[in-house]
Amino acid sequence: MENGGTGTGLRFLAFIEGVSVLTRQESPYRWAVLFTALAAYYLIVSQRTAPGLVTNQWMGEFHVSAGLLGLMDSMQFMAYALLQVPVGILADRFGPSRFLMFGTLTNALGTLATGVATHTWVLFVARFLVGVGDATIFVNLVAVINEWFRAQEFVALLGIIGVAAGLGSLTATVPYALWIHAWGWRSLFITVSLVLFCVAAGLYEILVRRPRRMFATPTVRAGEPVRPPSVRAAIRETFTSRQAYALAMCHFGLVGTYVGFMGSWGVAYLMQVFHMPRSAASAILMLGLFGAMAGGPVTSWLASRLGRPKRLYTLVHAVTFASWLLWFAAGPRPWLGLVLLSLVLIGFGNGGSSLTFAIARQTFPVERVGVVSGFANMGGFVSAVLLPSAFGAVLDHVPADRVLGFHFGLAIPVLFTAVGLAGVLLARDARRSRVIAVQETL
Q: Which residues form the Major facilitator superfamily (MFS) profile domain (predicted)?
């Protein structure tokens, strides 16, 4: 024990003095990298759902219909979804740090433009920029963990990412609602954009400039040296892999239904159906966020203990599907207690969606983790693109009775989560082989 402690102390002193005896996966500096990247992720996630707090205000101030507003939300998520595979390829080939910084800057510009928008088209462009910036964050955050942390730490750290996402979404409920009530919605978006600009500068310093001086050795991912595949090979192997499609279906069912509903129509649903003020509706949505914050670390911990996450992930999908189905089956004015329980379970399922990337990490070669993660993540945000606009279209077709319109709209997440359940049943478990072979493609 004494010799081990002395060795650790000497290695730490050598690191402080700038001697390159520690790899990235061994250095204490990796925690500074992680928490700086998480700060960016936390703020950007809060901007995914913040527009849901001002849906009614935007409809009045910009004179837009529910369907057009749903289309605007869809544009934000469409930009996110379409860029997932290109971002994954770029992260695998050129490293994630600069793209993480670029995404934070782009998101800051879009958030600033949202705050100063005076015309509908400006608001559309602004939310599209937010989507472009958001598109680079998660895949590159996963790649940063893959680059700076050991393979055995990977699954547990996915749970920490889930907590950061939950805190971001939690901030976009009562705290942001109180801010909007006190100082207006424009000041909120402008302030957050200024903080994001500062975080982008911090990312450059901590993820780009300082590591270049501190570490002379080349970057190694999760302890394994790899040769990045060609772009054509990466795309071909991913787009013909049954496993990749199954994982994308998993994310389609859990992420898009949660993000799309909570971010666009959750507050409006509670205000219309239960006649709640905005602050009370935002407080109730926090139940889903608490569920999401618990779902990430709990499912990641269980998966790391069990070693085979598919069975656990199947249970998560089944519970999420049952929650949406019961909510819809309860009728236009369901019992509020059922809605509260459903929100918790649906949020927990969204937090558990990090198991998509645990399965990807276990069943694909390390040099393809970035592009496969991007492809799977794209599934979640294709769902998030479709749900807000589809929900808005349903509401526009039942203008005389908004409560009935919201009830019909709940059939959409029921169908989407059924797709997710089918995906997890189709996904292969890691026990068959350590990686998916080329011949196991479509």
A: 32-435
Q: Domain spans of the chain?
A: 22-440
> 250 and 376 in contact (C-beta within 8 Å)?
yes
Q: Which residue has the higher pLDDT, 139 or 19?
A: 139
Distances (CA, A) of 219 to 8, 24, 35, 393, 397: 22, 8, 19, 48, 54
pLDDT in tens, 198-219: 999 999 999 888 887 777 554 5
Predicted structure pTM score: 0.71
Level-2 CATH architecture, domain 22-440: Up-down Bundle (1.20)
Structure tokens at 284: 């109730």
What lies within 8 Å, CB to CB, of 119 at 6+ separation is: 62
| Half-sphere exposure at residue 236, Cβ-oriented, CA atoms within 13 angstroms | 7
285: pLDDT strictly greater than 50: yes
- pLDDT in the model for residue 439: 34
Q: For residue 249, what are its two tokens? A: 């279906």
Q: Which of 41, 55, 94, 142 is nearest to 376 (CA)?
A: 142
Round to whole Å and give the CA distance between 192 and 197: 9
Q: How far is CA 282 from CA 144, 210, 331, in A?
A: 33, 41, 22
Quick: pLDDT tens for 304-315: 777 778 889 999
